[in-house]
Amino acid sequence: MNETPSATRRQMLAAAGGLGLALIVRPAQAQLQANPVALNAAIRKVTGGAKLNKGRVHLDVPPLSENGNTVALGVSVDSPMTATDYVKAIHVFSEKNPQPNIVSVRLGPRAGKAGITTRMRLADTQTITAVAELSDGSFWTETGHVIITLGACLEDVI
């Protein structure tokens, strides 16, 4: 008599659970891919398509962050902050977050200092782009890379 082993109830439940998890995780991973089209569109919306110059902007982000829910961010811009020469705005963008525009801060000559510090949420390891808009209409940029070990921003995905 030749009996073929049948799967137990426990094995069937484990297989179904694994399949369900794979179906949930796969879309989440797909959404965390860099989206240069959305990033470029967000930057173009801010700059109006103007040329981005390198320099003057200093981006301070940690090279490694254990938790994507609270990543330190500092942006400063070389500017005298006078009535005729000042930073109008600082914008920060991410390449993999569901919303590429992380923050936009308006400044004026009375701010005294062209800089911001805050914390941000990041979904995954990615490049951060800071753009400074100056009173003369020019735009200056800097990028930084952050490695995230535990991502954030996934509540709408899973």
Structure description:
- The protein is α+β, with helices and mostly antiparallel strands.
- The chain has two helices and nine strands, in the order ααβββββββββ.
- The protein has helices spanning 9-31, 36-47; strands at residues 52-54, 57-60, 64-65, 71-77, 87-94, 101-106, 115-120, 126-134, 139-148.
- The strands form two sheets. Strands 1, 3, 5, 6, 8 and 9 form a six-stranded mixed beta sheet that branches. Strands 2-4-7 form a three-stranded antiparallel beta sheet, with no helix packed on it.
- The longest helix is centred in the first third of the chain and has 23 residues, at 9-31.
Helix content: 10-25%
* Strand/helix succession: HHEEEEEEEEE
> Main beta sheet: strand number and arrangement?
6 strands, mixed
Q: Label the structural class.
A: alpha+beta
Low-pLDDT stretches are 21-30
CATH fold descriptor:
Immunoglobulin-like
Number of domains: 1
Oligomer: single chain
Distance between the termini: 48 Å
- Gyration radius, to the nearest Å? 22 Å
| Helix count, DSSP H or I runs of 4 or more residues | 2
Determine the CATH superfamily: SoxY domain
Averaging pLDDT over every residue, what do you get?
84
| Name of the top-level CATH class | Mainly Beta
Query: Which second-level CATH architecture applies?
Result: Sandwich
